[in-house]
User: Fold Esterase from Tengunoibacter tsumagoiensis.
Amino acid sequence: MDERSDQRQQKEPVGVLLVHGLNGSLRDMDELAAFLSLNGLYTRLVLLPGHGTHVNDMLAIGWGEWAQAVRDELHQLQEICDHVFLIGHSLGGALCLHLAASEQIAGLITMCAPVHMYPGMLTAIRLTRRFIPMVPTIREDIRDPEARKRHSRDVYRWTPMAPVESMLQYLPMLRAELPLVTAPILIMTALHDHVVPASDGRAIYRMIGSQDKHLVTLDRSYHMIVKDHDREEVFSRTLTFLLRHIIRLQANVLTDNNSEQVKKLY
Assistant:
C-alpha cells in the first residue's frame, strides 16, 4: 500500500521513497513528502506490514516482512524513476540502511535510526513478551505539545513486543552491513531522543562505508523530529541534500553524454 504524491505516467528522473517507523503510520512522513513534492520531487510513502489497520495485525510481523515490503516498493519505484533516494525514520531508517547495503540507490537519509538501542533492552523485551504480548504506548516522543496532540491520534495505543524483539534481533546484522553501504548519506539524530539514543547516529557515521556522509544532531526535538520543533530544519536539510546530489547526477549524465558525442566524432 502506498501514497503517490504525483500521478504522472512518464518516467521520472528522480524518486524519493519515505519509510515510517515502528508503530507509526503514513502520516508520520506525510508533511515531509508533501514538502518535497511541492519542490518538484516525485515521492512515495510506504506503509509497513502490520501498520495502519489493527495492532493485532502486527503481532506476527517482523523484520523480514518489513524489509521485503520496502524492497518491493523500491523496485517498483526504480521501474518508473531513473534514480531513487531513500528516507527513513527510526525503524524505517534501519530498513533503508539494510536495503542500501545491497541495492543500487542514489542516496539515503536516516532519521533517529537504531543500530544499538539501549543495553539490556532485548533481554527485557524477551522476558516481558512471555507474559504480556503488548504494552500501552505511553506517549509519542515529541517535545512540541501541540504537535504531540496532533500526532498521538495516528499511532496504535498499544505496542506489541514480538515485532520490537524482531527489530532488535536484527540490529547486530545491520551493523555488520553498514560498511557495505557506499551511497551518499545524511544521518540525523536527536540529542534528547528517548527512544533511540543519539549515540546510534554517531555509530552509523563511524561504521558506514559511504565516503560522502554527514551527521546532524538536533537539540530541540525528541524522537519524532519530522513533527517536532526542528521539523523545518529537517525539511530544509533533507531538500538541500537531495538537490545537491540530484545536481551531481545530472552533471554525470551530461558528462557521459558529452563523452559519447566525442566518441562519435572519432
